[in-house]
Design brief:
Distance between the termini of chain A: 30 Å
Strand content of chain B: 15-25%
Strand order of the largest sheet of chain A: 1-4
CATH architecture of the largest domain in chain B: Orthogonal Bundle
CATH superfamily of the largest domain in chain A: Nitrile hydratase alpha /Thiocyanate hydrolase gamma
Number of domains of chain B: 2
Largest sheet of chain A: 2 strands, parallel
CATH topology of the largest domain in chain B: Cyclin A, domain 1
Number of strands of chain B: 5
Number of strands of chain A: 4
Strand content of chain A: 5-15%
Strand order of the largest sheet of chain B: 4-3-2-1-5
Order of helices and strands of chain B: HHHHHHEEHEHEE
Number of helices of chain B: 8
Shape of chain A: globular
Radius of gyration of chain A: 19 Å
CATH class of the largest domain in chain B: Mainly Alpha
Distance between the termini of chain B: 24 Å
Structural class of chain B: alpha+beta
Oligomer: heterodimer
Shape of chain B: globular
Amino acid sequence: MSEHHHGHTEPPSDLVLRVKALESLLVEKGLVDPAAIDQLVEAYETRIGPRNGAQVIAKAWSDPAFKKWLLDDATAAIASLGFGGRQGEHMKVVENTPAVHNLVVCTLCSCYPWPVLGLPPVWYKSAPYRARAVADPRGVLKEFGTVLADHVEVRVWDSTAEIRYLVLPERPAGTESWSEKELAGLVTRNSMIGVGKAKSPKERS
Amino acid sequence: MNGAHDLGGQHGFGPVQAEPESMEPVFHAGWEKRVFGLVRVLGMLGLWNGDMSRYARERQHPVDYLRHSYYENWLAGLEKLLVEKGLISPTELASGIAAGPADEILRSGILRARDAARALEGSPATMGLDSPPRFQVGDCVRARNNHPTGHTREPRYVRGRVGVVCQHHGGHIFSDQSANGIKVARHLYTVRFEARELWGDAADPKSSVHLDLWEDYLEPA
């Protein structure tokens, strides 16, 4: 990962120029409509992100029938809330319990369930995470501040085919009377990858 | 291929450096947005699939793959595919100057802004096949000790190791062939491997790793 922080007064880097040149070339050849790129970027910056997944999790916490459906046929259950499409064609949801903790990775590239979590964070795509999540999951979890008791079983899911994984985190204690909308505010992206837990009512900002 | 992308179990990369979730933007620079969009928009031409895109990124020199950021790898893979598929020439890529317009049929089929939502749609990987599955849930299987020089989704860390089939997914498009543009189905299974089987006796006895593996990767154990 680049550690450079360029101020906006610096001249554009070689990389910026290279990308600009390539896009201009492709537009000139008639192969790209730049406005289509704008639309896709806008979709992933504003509409397709982890708030979608948080709705799925909050519903599963609130509605036992939905939770059962989600664990049996995640693709269909998630589609019923209006989420689906590219990189979410074949979904599987894995449930965290007091005895089992699940963690999702893609060691070979960076496969990730876009319709419910959006595009992956930089660390998920980085070599340290991809190298260590399968070999030292407890060590990785500790770096995220997630310390598991020794008796907890850790299940790592390496996304090697086109099945995409979403973790159903444990519902935080003290939320029995909460609405789905309130619950969704406790569901973090990291808890749906499995590197963290959902927020407690106290942690809600 | 035994490339730099096959990272599971490698040492020496240091701790995971995560930005706080609440602070992390979707993109970290304007050029990343353009690379993401170019890859998605050009992918809609249908001249290559996701496996070919992954394979193009993997075929970089290993030092380059590891040195590059994620979207730099996307850019490198895209440039490779554009040239290999003849959409642009190496001279055009180097100079940035178009020698002429692209083929009329290609130009008429590009993704326009009004249809951009098409690029958000899914493309299922399931595919029917006639042969019955060789393995059942509960079977012990060994991941074959394969070292193909082409694209594969059988990571090195699992090769030769024994696990248990925990789910059968039916026929899925086989990545190893799909990366060569050949669309065939193979049975796909989720296989659970105990951490100690993968990483030795020092590994956590309470951990396991699950991988989605095509039948060609597996043999009875």
